[in-house]
Amino acid sequence: MMKIGILGGGQLGYMFLQNALRYPYEIHVLDPSVNAPCAKHAHHFVQGDFADFETVLAFGKDLDAIGIEIEHVNVDALRELKKRGKRIVPDPEALAIIQDKSIQKQFYVDHQIPTAPYFVLEDWKELICVVTEFPLFQKANKGGYDGKGVQYLNSRNEIEKILRVPSIYETPADLEKEIAVVVVADDQGNLVNYPVVELVFNQEYNLLDYLLVPGNLSETHAIEAEKIARKVVANLNSPGVFAVEMFLNKNGTIWVNETASRVHNSGHSTIEAAKSSQFDQMLRVLAGLPLGSTDLYATSAMVNLIGAEGETGKAQVENLEEMLEIPGIYLHWYAKEETRPGRKMGHVTLVDADLERLKSNIEKVNQTVKVTAKV
Predict the structure, then answer these.
(1) CA–CA separation, 132 vs 166, rounded Å?
(2) Most-buried pick from 4, 17, 25, 107 (CB within 10 A)?
(3) How confident is the model at residue 6 (pLDDT cuts 50, 70, 90)?
(4) 178 appears as a binding residue in the annotation
(5) Can you tell me which residues bind ATP (predicted)?
(6) What does residue 79 show for φ and ψ, rounded to 5 degrees?
């Protein structure tokens, strides 16, 4: 039986498992937390640090294929496992590009992929001397995720807000919409992609609030976005599932914001809305199976369930029964130990051919559901 390993046992690994356990493969998961969502469900769970070279090497030595559900893993260990004949998804060299935002941005420039103007500073103190216009977005080169590692700087006088780490500094987009395209590549160079996703963000936490797929944008912009996303993935020259996040500017231009080299929030609604979900595609790529269909059954939306402000402790969902009265709604709970303000605790997917009714139900979910701590 083929043995597949996943570095990371969080919610993405948990949703991967829910699909992968239907296949005749043995799934192994490595995560630092013994209480990770995957811990009770994988065939084999190992508690350990996926950023440690020896730990990753030991985890992967008897496996046939290794994938990731988080980018912050030890890429040198994956390089060594590839040398030993293991299938690594994504390829370690592609992952190394994605892990460092300064390298990722240079990759876009080198391949003539449109992206926001930027500059790189290894020492944050140099920002005081740099001749540049404000405002700027500062993005830490390494370690950022879910809105962390990003800082909006209105002027050079906001020294107290500057992240004290090597970073890129970007010109803000003149934003019309934030969009994304999930692209899947196998190791033969075949590519498939899902339709363009429209992203709406929670400004308080800089997290995705909800998404619509297909996004509400012109056919011209949709075609261009898909073309750009496929160019990004083709040039990464790696198998895997990739989410290419982009800015659609008010003048009609499209800039690549960043790329995730794994299954992603922007692809969650594919579980119910597509013939083959992003998690099924991840399994297919790891196992060397044919890529699945990205055709949609219907228009869909995904709404994040985020821990409420002031709520820390064992989680509960308030008004769950009322929410589940909405036709075409599906709950995904991430089995995390505790809720915290702004923490992703789950999501719901809504499937409906009527776009206006879909938007109305998104608003109903946001007004009805609340993730709180049990007293």
Answers:
(1) 17
(2) 4
(3) very high
(4) yes
(5) 101, 139, 178, 257-258
(6) -60, -45
Kindly state whether residues 158 and 184 are assigned to the same domain.
no
Determine the Cα–Cα distance for residues 20 and 5; give it in Å rounded to an integer: 11
258 carries a ligand binding annotation: yes
Within a 10 A sphere around the Cβ of 14, how many other Cβ atoms?
Answer: 24
In the structure encoding, which two tokens stand for residue 179, read together? 């969009």
Boundary of a domain, candidates 279, 295, 311:
295
Tell me: is residue 204 an annotated ligand-binding position.
Answer: no
Own/partner contacts of 326-330, CB < 8 Å, gap of 24 or more, are 326/350, 326/361, 326/364, 326/365, 327/352, 328/352, 329/361, 329/365, 330/271, 330/272
Residues 164 and 189 in one domain: no
The answer on whether 69 is annotated among ligand-binding residues is: no
257 is known to lie in a ligand binding site: yes
Instruction: Render pLDDT for 114-172 as a digit per residue (tens, 0 to 9).
Output: 999 999 999 988 888 887 889 999 999 998 776 678 999 998 888 788 999 999 999 99
* Residues contacting 117, CB < 8 A, separation 6+: 170, 171
Query: Cβ of 54: how many Cβ atoms within 10 Å?
Result: 11
Question: The tokens 């996703």 sit on which residue?
Answer: 197
188 and 266 belong to one structural domain: yes
Distance CA 190, CA 87 (A): 17
